[in-house]
Structure formats: structure tokens, C-alpha cells
Automatic annotation (TrEMBL):
InterPro entries: LysR_HTH_N (IPR000847), LysR_subst-bd (IPR005119), WH-like_DNA-bd_sf (IPR036388), WH_DNA-bd_sf (IPR036390). It comes from Acinetobacter bouvetii DSM 14964 = CIP 107468. Pfam families: HTH_1, LysR_substrate. PROSITE patterns: HTH_LYSR (PS50931). Residues 1-57 form the HTH lysR-type domain. GO terms for molecular function: DNA-binding transcription factor activity; transcription cis-regulatory region binding. The keyword NADP does not apply. Signal peptide: none annotated. Belongs to the LysR transcriptional regulatory family. Keywords: DNA-binding, Transcription, Transcription regulation. This is HTH lysR-type domain-containing protein.
Amino acid sequence: MQIKSLEIFTTVIKLQSFSAAAQHLHTVQSNVTAHIKKLETELQAELLHRQHPIRPTRAGMQLFRAAEQMLQLHQEVLNQFNHSSLDSNLPLEIGSMETTAAIRLPALFQNLQKRDLQFPYTLTTAPTRELIDAVQAGQLDCAFIANPAPVSGLFNFHVWTEELVLISAKNSPNPLSAEYLSHKKFISFKQGCSYRKVIDHYLSIQQLPAANILEMGSLDGIVSCVSLDVGIAILPLKYVQQSYFYPHIQIHALEAPLARMPTYLIAEDQNQWSSNMHLFFKHLHTEQSPSLPALAAALET
């Protein structure tokens, strides 16, 4: 049973004429007749009373109701894959680092919901390495990660660049001495966090031994411990400045190349995206931010 046949059948019933249906559909009447006969053969039922005006049989009325639903569903699917409508039954699975979820995504999601309150999505936070693995395994539609360079084999779009700083307790020396650093623990997320790799690079540049890492599972926990002089940490300046503990910590600038860390949106190849993923990416495009100058070009590729 072809969609085209159902379109012709419903048009014949609505216009009550083979010739009018042919004219409306820009085809010949013999084509209309052939599709109707094909439907009747497939269903083994007489669908139309062939008189003037044309009217459906009881079997025809049954098919007409079903055909209207099928054609509507067909159009909905086309709209979704033309990226013009949401699929409310398929939430977009978004992944993010804890820091990005805290400082960047609230405004993004707020504006998204202003545009479409029903946009379906879920958010999972994890270290960058876990997010990359999840996208590659098809467990996430996309993820916001911190990485010095694009991830090979995936779609990458540079969204933001974070300024990283080293933070210590308010009463710590300034500048931080090598002796002070050698006796302090670094507080960080677990292995797989990109900012943890920055710690290793920082120690190497400072010619200090590998740090004793204290792993914590929350940003507030990390900054709280720093404010109490439990240890030191490297985090995005934007998060530190909005933290409740900001008055109780000291900020130390990092030198290039450690001071800046790109944030990428990663996903599978664009031809594998769902309609919701396309619409989410277009929403990113409409966000008025000077950090998104290349998005229009990316959309054209």
C-alpha cells in the first residue's frame, strides 16, 4: 500500500470526482483510476460507489479514516527529518562537564525553553573522557567537553573558551612559592577530567613532583576545601567568580598555554543526527554570543 495511493484515494473522496482529483494532483485520470483499483485489489474490497458524485462505500469510509491518520503521521515524520518539528517522544541526550553545566548551560537551556517549552532533553554530567566514550558508543546525542583540540572521528564545534586559574586559600602566599606548592594537595575531579590534565602540565612546567590528588565529586566541594586551605585547584575563572566561596579564596593567573581551554560540542556525524539534534544545534546558532562567529559556516557544511 503506497502513500501515493492513499493520497489519491482521500483526494477522490474529498472532491467526489476522479477528474477533479486528477486535476488537483496534476496527473491524468487513468493514473488516479489505476491507484484506486490497486488499493481495492490489495484490500479485496470495493472502496467507492462509481456514480456522480463519487462517494465511498462503508469499506471506503473505514479506509478513509485510517488513510487520514497514516498521511498525517507520514507528514509529521517528514517534518521531523526536514528539521522543522520536534519529536517529543525522543528526548535529546546531552552530556556535559560539571563546570559547563554550572556556568554555561543554564542560560542556554533557559533560552531554549523560551523558544519551545516542550523541547525534550536530558542532561548527564561526567568527565570529558567518559563523555567522549558515550558519544562514540551512541549513548549520548552530543556532549560539551573541554579538550585542547577537536576529537578525531567526531563532529566538533568550538563553542566557548574558558580562562583557567589556579585558586588557593585567602591566607596563602602570593605569589605561590615552589615550597608551598610542593606541600599542597591538588583537589580535582576523578581521572578523565581535562582540568586534571592541566594540573599535570602545570607541575611539569614548575618542575615539581606529581601532586597528591584529592578527588572530589562536586565543584562546590572542591572550592569549599580550597577556601579552608585543604588544597589548591585549577578551575574556570567564570565558575570561581560566581562561587559562594569566592571571597575566601585567592586567584592566581596561569601562563599560556595552560590559561585557556576550549569547550567543544561533540556529536556523531551530522547525517546521523535526529531532528531534535538539528534543532538544538540551530538554537545554538541563534544564541547571541561573540564566541559563536563560526557557527553559520559550520551549519553550511
